[in-house]
Design goal:
Elements lengths: L18 E6 L11 E6 L17 H10 L6 E8 L5 H19 L6 E8 L6 H20 L9
Parallel strand pairs: 3-4
Antiparallel strand pairs: 1-2, 2-3
Helix pairs in contact: 1-2, 2-3
Length: 155
């Protein structure tokens, strides 16, 4: 548990070259929470992962491991509220589907997207809500670009 943590204000955050962030309220588990984050990475960005050694890995962990194996990662999609853990093959399908939806929106390959989920285990991801909120995340990434962190993605 974090002690004495205060969320920084927007004017305390500084742009990071090659990184764009977009956040939306997808209603993944509860309404009115910013529970979906899209991070776009510039071409040539390097991404690495450190993973659990546990034999039980959630679907997003397995998909991340597969996608990091020799692929140029260009986007991270993070949801909070539901961990997509202990969900079996439907969870794997959902994790892959979030990558596909993100890739289609950003004109990338599915394998260039890493999915991340945190929250309650043994519950299915609300895929329709996540996919519906992705365009807002992407629009907010474009707004981040206008603020100076990364040139806009060519149309």
């Amino acid at each position: 548990m974090t002690v004495n943590y205060a969320t920084p204000s927007v004017n305390q955050l500084h742009p990071v070259a090659g990184v764009r962030l977009g956040v939306a309220e997808a209603g993944i588990r509860k309404a009115n929470r910013r529970d979906l984050t899209l991070i776009e990475l510039a071409a040539g960005s390097r991404v690495a992962g450190v993973f659990t050694q546990n034999r039980f890995c959630a679907a997003p962990v397995q998909v991340c491991q597969q996608h990091l194996a020799g692929h140029s990662i260009r986007a991270l999609l993070i949801n909070t509220g539901i961990a997509n853990a202990g969900t079996g093959e439907p969870g794997m399908t959902a994790a892959r589907a979030t990558c596909s939806a993100t890739a289609a929106l950003l004109d990338l390959s599915d394998r260039q997207v890493l999915p991340f989920s945190t929250g309650v285990i043994m519950e299915a991801l609300p895929l329709k809500r996540i996919v519906s909120a992705l365009p807002l995340c992407q629009a907010r990434c474009a707004a981040t670009a206008r603020a100076g962190s990364m040139p806009p993605t060519p149309s």
